[in-house]
């Protein structure tokens, strides 16, 4: 890994290579104007292939020295780049066309846009050309690894699986740590609406953004500091992801068709014992206990390799993605519309996702009135496979494929599935094939807005938005599975609905005074309401599997179950922002939001979230006028407060619920009692953040970047605290505790070589340190439960959140060791030797210590783009260094719940024996005295990795005189080609707990290699 980082450093030095120039200098002068004839100030003018450059003055004039046959390049924010060959001409006037198809030079911020050069906050902008390419189901996957300070974790690689995003670290213990998503000005609820099945124990975390087609996205802006996020008040503490979809532009109709097909495969499986190794091991372990062997030699020879259950449930899977879009416009009206179909099979049998989507964006714009519609609708069909963190018969397909007895056949000679009563696990193939588990989610969201200009400088805008979701999940476990043998078939049907309504009223005033004072003021009022309801029903004991869950009445009436729920919460807000620009040098932004939330107590309904930021464009100062190598230098500083109110509804109130049953006059009644203590003082978490940054550019933008330092401190944590059971309850929510995150991040972009051969590089690097600062007097909190392991993370003052907590293994006891005089006097040779951390001469729970953290020391990503004529090539590396993950598959293998479960090959083929006195692996014999648990540093593994995440090769066909085609491109893409890591599990990036800060690998759906070929044609 160090060698790779060294190679990256060398690679980044290449952009500073100076290309040779002609030795016949001439001076060229002229003027640059817009298509309307207006002079353009600040346009970069440089000699192609050199560092020589200048910029136009306020009247659009420029003067530059070059060779007589040089090529001048003209570029500026918001305008199309133009190249002009001199050919002995020393006076050139250039007209630049506005870049109307993209947001070049403009950054989307809360409730508006800003010129990039005027931004005082910390904002990462990623446009469509920089997105991760290939088979991407959601916007989260598009930006993974592309922005400094933003860690994207694939919590499940299942098609449509959840993705967790941390912007500048984790802020909360019990509240949500995910950012707020805003799509075309509509803040959405990013909580998954697809219900979890209580009978398949799927545990799948679905991505709520699956409804949005990634091909419709024009840009993603990530707001990171308080200056950028305070305008969203009580929802801005975790950062804000602004998603802008594609819009039309003035011109003739463009019809674009994009079709691609993908092949997916599992790069590696977890090495387990083969059937012969497994049988030999069981015989050996029985012999050490003076028992007769279970298997004879002829049985071992006859079984061969047995059943490789992982190969039985994994497959090569195919996917297709088709997109048809229409765009164009007239002088005042433009439009964009698209249709999308995606069908992705999973690499685990019986899993996959389908999406049918459509989008319409319309915009009308004249001097007095603006009007727009952004509307997205989709149907997402999920095909689940049982998985998750359950154990024994309730364990999922991947767990059973890892630990099932390899001597059992997939099917018996009579065609029935092979099963065993010795191992408390399912036949994974039977579980996958005989479980019906599908969900269909219908989602329509969008907004309608109108803006009226009272005078050119003053406008009022009204924005109405809605997000309506409806999801139904149908589950049935067939009678051929082991878990349904006792229930004779198990069916469940659930319906969830989520509705979100938004009303916004804003007024904006912009004015420039004396050509040096630019002023913008924004005032607004917003109201947003969220409604949820659910209905669930189930039944068991069916005479046939044919009906699945389509007729629950076919089950036994005594097994019927029913449940329902409903909740609502509202936000009422007042917001304001002032932007001031003096001489295009000195920038000031002040913003504030007052949020009222129904989630909080009567005494704390409203909160105030202010911020202030300042910027200094040093490059515009006279003392840097002659420093021509410097093309941009801006200092930024900001401070502000943001909040987090994402804890669910009604946490501050007394809640009533069903409690027990009583029979009165022969009739059974369900009792009602309090199920939650009230807290009228409950309020949001508050995060204060300081940010200091610099934006820089050299050599007319050929080298540019940003550098930021930040410090975030969160107080009044929404913590679920234990309380005396004499109250009748075990926990309640209170505002106590604190946490901090600090770090720095850097992003660099270089133009290494210009045309005709072009090479561009982008690099991002982040360091973030997390620490718990206050736990309201509690010594610690233990969290984490999966499989047979519990309380494997600790929340402790002075340590990173959810650090891994357990014992340190210092090797293996050997026959010559003085075991009787050790801290484990009853151990035997071949057993693990645990560290006596507190030196008290014994191994107790007091010897547990922090073994690692889920947060990396640093993360980085580097992308290189090459182009020559019609050919293009790009490749993107991503790296994470210093994070850890708890490998529960190792703990269950080395301390199995059942003697007959399969084991990790590495731990047992090189196990300790008197003839093989290794100091690495134990003997595999269960210790007679358990001095410690299996939560130890062997299972908490280094999750650092370097991954070649994306490679794309494309060719664009030239259609200069075609009457039919405006453009066409063919491309091939490879994703996740290889990963360099010391982690022994399937993937170091996974987390079985979805968006939780507790990171563990337990039966993770495997990351896949994906190979894609496609074509993009525009008519």
From TrEMBL:
Question: Where is this protein localized, as stated in its record?
Answer: Cell outer membrane
Signal peptide start and end residues: 1-20
Answer yes or no on keyword Membrane: yes
Looking up InterPro entries in the UniProt record yields: Beta-barrel_TonB, Beta-barrel_TonB_sf, CarboxyPept-like_regulatory, Plug_dom, Plug_dom_sf, TonB-dep_OMP_SusC/RagA, TonB-dep_OMP_SusC/RagA_CS, TonB-dep_rcpt-like
Topology in membrane: Multi-pass membrane protein
Indicate the segments forming the TonB-dependent receptor plug domain, all copies: 116-240
Q: What Pfam family does this protein match (any one)?
A: CarbopepD_reg_2
Q: Which PROSITE patterns match?
A: TONB_DEPENDENT_REC_3 (PS52016)
Query: In this protein, which residues make up the domain named TonB-dependent receptor-like beta-barrel?
Result: 440-976
Key word Transport present: yes
Per UniProt, the keywords (alphabetical) are:
Cell outer membrane, Membrane, Receptor, Signal, TonB box, Transmembrane, Transmembrane beta strand, Transport
Family as reported in the entry's similarity comment: Belongs to the TonB-dependent receptor family.
Q: What is this protein called?
A: TonB-dependent receptor
């Amino acid at each position: 890994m160090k060698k790779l980082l060294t190679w990256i450093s060398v690679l980044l030095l290449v952009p500073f290579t100076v290309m040779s120039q002609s030795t016949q200098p001439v001076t060229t002068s002229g003027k640059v104007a817009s298509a309307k004839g207006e002079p353009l100030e600040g346009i970069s003018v440089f000699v192609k292939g050199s560092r020589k450059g200048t910029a136009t003055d306020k009247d659009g004039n420029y003067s530059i020295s070059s060779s007589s046959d040089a090529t001048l390049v003209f570029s500026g924010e918001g305008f199309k780049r133009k190249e002009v060959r001199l050919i002995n001409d020393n006076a050139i006037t250039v007209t630049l066309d506005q870049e109307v198809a993209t947001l070049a030079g403009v950054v989307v911020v809360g409730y508006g846009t800003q010129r990039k050069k005027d931004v005082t906050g910390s904002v990462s902008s990623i446009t469509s050309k920089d997105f991760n390419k290939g088979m991407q189901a959601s916007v989260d996957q598009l930006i993974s690894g592309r922005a400094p300070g933003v860690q994207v974790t694939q919590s499940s690689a299942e098609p449509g699986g959840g993705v967790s995003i941390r912007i500048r670290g984790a802020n909360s213990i019990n509240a949500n740590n995910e950012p707020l998503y805003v799509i075309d000005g509509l803040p959405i609820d990013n909580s998954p609406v697809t219900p979890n099945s209580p009978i398949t124990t799927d545990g799948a975390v679905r991505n709520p953004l699956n409804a949005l087609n990634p091909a419709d996205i024009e840009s993603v802006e990530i707001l990171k500091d308080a200056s950028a996020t305070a305008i969203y008040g009580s929802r801005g503490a975790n950062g804000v992801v602004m998603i802008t979809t594609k819009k039309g532009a003035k011109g003739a109709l463009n019809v674009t068709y994009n079709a691609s097909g993908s092949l997916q495969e599992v790069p590696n499986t977890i090495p387990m014992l083969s059937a012969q190794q497994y049988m030999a091991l069981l015989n050996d372990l029985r012999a050490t206990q003076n028992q007769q062997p279970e298997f004879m030699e002829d049985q071992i020879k006859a079984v061969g390799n047995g059943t490789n259950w992982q190969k039985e449930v994994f497959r090569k899977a195919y996917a297709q993605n088709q997109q048809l879009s229409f765009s164009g416009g007239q002088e005042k009206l433009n439009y964009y519309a698209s249709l999308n179909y995606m069908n992705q099979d999973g690499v685990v049998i019986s899993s996959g996702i389908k999406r049918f989507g459509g989008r319409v964006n319309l915009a009308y714009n004249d001097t007095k009135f603006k009007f727009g519609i952004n509307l997205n609708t989709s149907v997402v069909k999920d095909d689940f496979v049982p998985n998750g963190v359950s154990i024994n018969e309730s364990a999922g397909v991947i767990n059973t494929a890892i630990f099932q007895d390899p001597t059992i056949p997939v099917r018996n000679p009579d065609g029935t599935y092979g099963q065993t009563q010795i191992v408390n696990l399912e036949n994974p193939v039977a579980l996958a094939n005989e479980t019906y588990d599908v969900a269909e989610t219908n989602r329509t969201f969008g907004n309608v807005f109108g803006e009226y200009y009272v005078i050119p400088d003053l406008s009022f805008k009204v924005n109405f938005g809605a997000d309506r979701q409806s999801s139904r999940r149908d589950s049935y476990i067939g009678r051929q599975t082991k878990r349904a043998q006792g229930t004779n078939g198990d069916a469940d049907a659930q319906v969830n609905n989520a509705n979100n309504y938004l009303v916004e009223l804003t007024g904006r005033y912009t004015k420039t005074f004396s050509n040096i004072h630019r002023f913008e003021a924004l005032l607004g009022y917003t109201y947003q309401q969220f409604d949820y309801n659910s209905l669930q029903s189930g039944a068991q004991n069916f005479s046939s599997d044919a009906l699945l869950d389509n007729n629950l009445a076919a089950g036994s009436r005594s097994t019927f179950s029913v449940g329902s729920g409903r909740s609502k919460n509202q936000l009422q807000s007042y917001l304001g922002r002032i932007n001031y620009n003096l001489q295009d040098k000195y920038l000031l932004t002040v913003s504030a939001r007052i949020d009222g939330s129904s989630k909080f107590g009567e005494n704390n309904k409203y909160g105030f979230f202010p911020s202030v930021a300042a910027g200094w464009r040093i490059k515009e100062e006279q003392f840097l006028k002659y420093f021509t190598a410097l093309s941009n230098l801006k200092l930024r500083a900001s401070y502000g407060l943001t909040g987090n109110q994402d804890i669910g509804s009604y946490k501050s109130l007394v809640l009533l619920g069903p409690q027990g049953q009583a029979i009165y006059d022969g009739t059974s009644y369900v009792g009602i009692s309090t199920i939650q203590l009230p807290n009228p003082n409950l309020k949001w978490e508050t995060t204060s953040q300081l940010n200091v940054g610099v934006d820089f550019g050299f050599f007319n933008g050929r080298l540019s970047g940003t550098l930021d330092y930040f410090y975030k401190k969160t107080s009044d944590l929404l913590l679920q605290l234990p309380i005396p059971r004499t109250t009748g309850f075990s926990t309640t929510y209170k505002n106590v505790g604190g946490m901090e995150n600090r770090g720095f991040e850097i992003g660099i972009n270089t133009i290494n070589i210009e045309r005709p051969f072009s090479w561009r590089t982008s690099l991002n690097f982040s360091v973030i340190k997390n620490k718990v600062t206050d736990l309201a007097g509690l010594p610690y909190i233990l969290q984490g439960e999966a499989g047979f392991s519990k309380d494997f993370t600790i929340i402790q003052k002075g340590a990173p959140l959810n650090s891994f907590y357990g014992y340190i293994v210092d090797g293996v006891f050997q026959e010559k060791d003085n075991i009787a005089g050790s801290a484990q006097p009853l151990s035997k040779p071949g057993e693990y030797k645990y560290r006596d951390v507190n030196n008290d001469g014994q191994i107790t729970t007091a010897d547990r210590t922090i073994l690692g953290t889920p947060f990396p020391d640093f993360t980085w990503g580097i992308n290189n783009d090459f182009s020559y004529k019609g050919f293009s090539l790009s490749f993107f590396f991503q790296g994470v260094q210093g994070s850890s993950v708890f490998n529960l598959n190792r703990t269950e293998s080395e301390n199995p719940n059942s003697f007959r479960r399969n084991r990790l090959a590495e731990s047992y083929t090189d196990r300790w024996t008197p003839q093989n006195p290794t100091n690495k692996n134990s003997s595999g014999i269960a210790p007679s005295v358990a001095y410690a648990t299996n939560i130890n540093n062997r299972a908490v593994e280094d999750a650092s990795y370097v991954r070649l995440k994306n490679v794309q090769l494309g060719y664009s066909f030239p259609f200069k005189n075609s009457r039919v085609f405006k453009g066409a491109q063919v491309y091939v893409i490879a994703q996740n080609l290889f990963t360099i890591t010391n982690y022994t599990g399937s993937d170091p990036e996974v987390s079985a707990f979805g968006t939780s800060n507790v990171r563990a690998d337990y039966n993770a759906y495997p990351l896949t290699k994906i190979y894609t070929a496609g074509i993009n044609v525009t008519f």
